[in-house]
């Protein structure tokens, strides 16, 4: 952040400068678990989290505008109606910055928080308890994929929202640098089987919010129940990471989405407009929208 930006931020929010100075101090001492009342509710987070945790501490929110934009769009389209939204499926829930506020604000009656990373799980459970949501928010400590078993989750030490599973179809290919990351073994399941174990189906889900660092093609392959009921999706779309999957896996991913949905909305736009889902491959190839490396969030209906 430039000096000018720092001064502007401090003028708007006088507590920002001392918080920023203290955050810099925390980088040089052993890890601490911090707590703050935020836009998302009461949140506990690590002083080593240079992404979500840093924003929560300094600004009291993380990417909340995008969350509101997605929910408002789905409500406008008639996919989310007051008092009719049963279950939110938050895949890659991290510490709960999406599912907790959306349940607290009664946008959804209940939620499943699906998160495989052990350190994230500890904070997620703490945040659920601090917000008195234990009866409404269920934690599923698994990684969703196309098969059941175990797999390695490659950890990002400075950003626990960037833990990654190996891509499918290329002998577990990783992006450059991922092979040097520490890894933990986590349980991996198909969403279809998670539903079966709980006695639920896609019909019970009002929205699936998916942010799993490019593993979406594998997750969707194991989520036929979700697609069969045309459950609206809010999904991160990161072409560089998606390209680590094989062509066959990607072709199946796009074909599955096109078979069950008709359009997408790009949340980078100030006023997202409907685009035919058949155009998604062009967005992937950089033929539609910005070229080069980028990522965005899509609303798919």
What labels describe this entry?
301 residues, eight-stranded mixed β-sheet, alpha/beta, single chain, four-stranded mixed β-sheet
Description:
This protein has helices at residues 3-12, 16-26, 52-59, 64-76, 99-104, 118-130, 191-198, 216-221, 224-228, 239-242, 247-260, 280-285; strands at residues 33-38, 41-46, 87-91, 110-114, 137-140, 143-144, 149-154, 164-165, 183-189, 205-210, 233-237, 263-266, 275-276, 296-300. The chain has twelve helices and 14 strands. It is globular. The longest helix is centred in the C-terminal third of the chain and has 14 residues, at 247-260. An eight-stranded mixed sheet has the order 5-4-3-10-11-14-12-13. Strands 6-9-7-8 form a four-stranded mixed sheet. It is α/β, with parallel strands linked by helices and 301 residues long.
List the SSEs and their pairings.
Elements: H1 3-12, H2 16-26, E1 33-38, E2 41-46, H3 52-59, H4 64-76, E3 87-91, H5 99-104, E4 110-114, H6 118-130, E5 137-140, E6 143-144, E7 149-154, E8 164-165, E9 183-189, H7 191-198, E10 205-210, H8 216-221, H9 224-228, E11 233-237, H10 239-242, H11 247-260, E12 263-266, E13 275-276, H12 280-285, E14 296-300
Parallel strand pairs: 3-4, 3-10, 4-5, 6-9, 10-11
Antiparallel strand pairs: 1-2, 7-8, 7-9, 11-14, 12-13, 12-14
Helix pairs in contact: 2-3
Would you kindly provide a brief summary of this structure?
By secondary structure, the chain is α/β, with parallel strands linked by helices. It is 35% helix and 22% strand.
